[in-house]
Amino acid sequence: MKWMVIVALVLPAWSAPCSGTAGSDGEEGLSCVQHGALGTELLLRCDAPAGAARVEWRVNGTTVAAAEDAVGGDQAQLWLRNASLAQEGEYSCHHPGTGKTLRRIRLRVGSPPEKPAIECWAVSYPQTVNCTWKLESEPRLETYFISTYRHGMGAKENECVQPGAGASSCSISDIQMFSITPYVLNVTAVNPLGATMNLFPFVVEQIIRPDPPEDLRVSPIPGASKKLLLEWQPPSSWPFPQYFPLKYLIRYAREGANSNRTIGPYEQTSFTLTGIRPRAIHHVQVAAKDFMDYGDYSAWSPLVSGTPWTQP
Ligand SMILES: *[C@@H]1O[C@H](CO)[C@@H](O)[C@H](O)[C@H]1NC(C)=O
Ligand SMILES: *[C@@H]1O[C@H](CO)[C@@H](O)[C@H](O)[C@H]1NC(C)=O
Ligand SMILES: *[C@@H]1O[C@H](CO)[C@@H](O)[C@H](O)[C@H]1NC(C)=O
Ligand SMILES: *[C@@H]1O[C@H](CO)[C@@H](O)[C@H](O)[C@H]1NC(C)=O
Ligand SMILES: *[C@@H]1O[C@H](CO)[C@@H](O)[C@H](O)[C@H]1NC(C)=O
Questions:
Q1: For residue 285, which atom of ligand 5 is closest to its CA?
Q2: What is the DSSP letter of 277?
Q3: Is the predicted pLDDT of residue 72 greater than 60, yes or no?
Q4: Domain named Fibronectin type-III: which ranges (predicted)?
């Protein structure tokens, strides 16, 4: 809870939001969108025309019975006492005599955004830190995210660059290596009903996690009926394997066996499995980690299978 702060922001216009009173500026001021929070009391406004004390309200084209439980007619205004999803719709108010449309309100009901759950990984150490976030449930209202970061308390705020509008990821380049000052990512989710922020502090070396190794090959070795040659490549997203080497774990199992073995770590990108059962199919995976043991192991690479050399 300590990290959660509700901040008020200037909301962008997705569609003309309803202002306090209906404008008299022609068609353009006639229609608007109003957002209301679930379970709250909502007021839909309309200006009574001169000479009339009341207006007629319609929902989805049907006249609202003033006696209806959820709806109370207060001269020109319509009260919704306990906003629910079923009350979304097209509301319109009309001149009681002529039926002329005075205002049209599209009502959307929802909640302020949830706190985004953030994850950051240095997949391409030391070039970038990639961060992703998600909301626990699909937001009902248009939601966008502001992502910024600071390197140290009181440091300048920088943008964590999102790949496009409405993205739920961003990346930080220009990383300072071996800094003990934590970075703090700030992701603020914004929708028409509010904004909710979450912070994610990290030290780059602690969130190193390469992508899985690639191009794993499992090959027989001519003449060796109990051996398999394994070869793979460092993940292509790891930019400088020569300066920031990786170490690898190997996990393998014989087809039909009910457990598998993990061996390593090894620093090279090939390995000969020995003493395995002749003729049996073997399944193999590899995982990578920073050589200096910073951060985490990658996920396991996809399974690749092979069979040792058999007498032709
Ligand atoms: C508002 O509506 C919800 C369900 O739509 C209901 O659970 C709740 O009790 C209602 N609250 C009030 C104050 O009527
Ligand atoms: C208006 O119509 C929409 C779409 O059909 C529906 O979801 C909504 O519940 C209706 N609103 C009311 C108050 O009947
Ligand atoms: C990390 O961010 C960079 C820069 O936006 C992007 O090119 C790369 O694909 C991202 N990597 C992952 C694993 O998302
Ligand atoms: C997080 O970002 C939001 C949106 O830019 C900003 O209003 C808020 O002050 C930031 N909070 C912190 C602690 O940096
Ligand atoms: C090893 O066991 C895990 C968990 O049961 C399984 O997901 C994985 O595919 C196995 N790996 C191999 C190489 O058989």
A1: 13
A2: P
A3: no
A4: 212-312
